[in-house]
Amino acid sequence: MQDSTTDTRPFSIADIAAATARRLGDDWAVGRSNWGTAGYLRGPYATRFTIGTDERSPEEGGDLTIRYEPQLADLDGFPADPALPDDVFKDRGGVRFMFASPSDGLDAVADLVADTIRAITGTDEEGDAPHQPAVSQVAAGVRKQIEELLDRWGRAADPDEGSNDEEHEVGIDMAELLWQLHGSLPPRD
Fold it and tell me: What angle do CA 57, 58, 62 make, to 5 degrees?
């Protein structure tokens, strides 16, 4: 991947995430771990991406990885078998970059990571994806549930109309919704 014009200044995993977010567009936000050893990407989906390394073979320096929740990827309607770039392989909970190296330079690595996330999400360079309407339908359903809960909360909190028991029930229902949204988890018993 390296050529004579590659910038090889030191960079962190968090730097890769920030450069990748810029390539993916304005809908993407980035976070970083305290020491820059992980970067977190959040785009217009429920799925979040964690860029890090897998130290299964520390003597070799570890491989660059992207981790994400398969359940949320299913909810987002991502392709089940994405066409990943060369030398990027599916791995448990994400993908692994077998031959990416810091010596490739930040720009080349960020380009590869951005291309990989586009493949995972099924989007092109403009961010267009055929599955986005499904995401909008999910978001609309969640919004409706939240609006109904807030309406119930307002009635339950009204001193003339509501009661503590009703407020408590709405609080439980809100917590249940948040629990499900947090990790696409099944309802608790």
Answer: 75
Contact 102, 9 (CB under 8 A): no
Tokens of 135: 């995401």
pTM of the model: 0.66
Secondary structure, 3-state, 7-50: CCCCCCHHHHHHHHHHHHCCCCEEEECCCCCCEEEECCCCCEEE
Q: Is the distance from CB of 66 to CB of 113 less than 8 angstroms? A: yes
Longest dimension (CA), the chain: 76
101-135 pLDDT, tens per residue?
889 999 999 999 999 999 999 987 766 665 554 55
Beta strands 88-91; 63-67: pairing state: unpaired
Instruction: Please tell me the distance from the alpha carbon of residue 172 to that of residue 170, in angstroms, as a whole number.
Output: 5
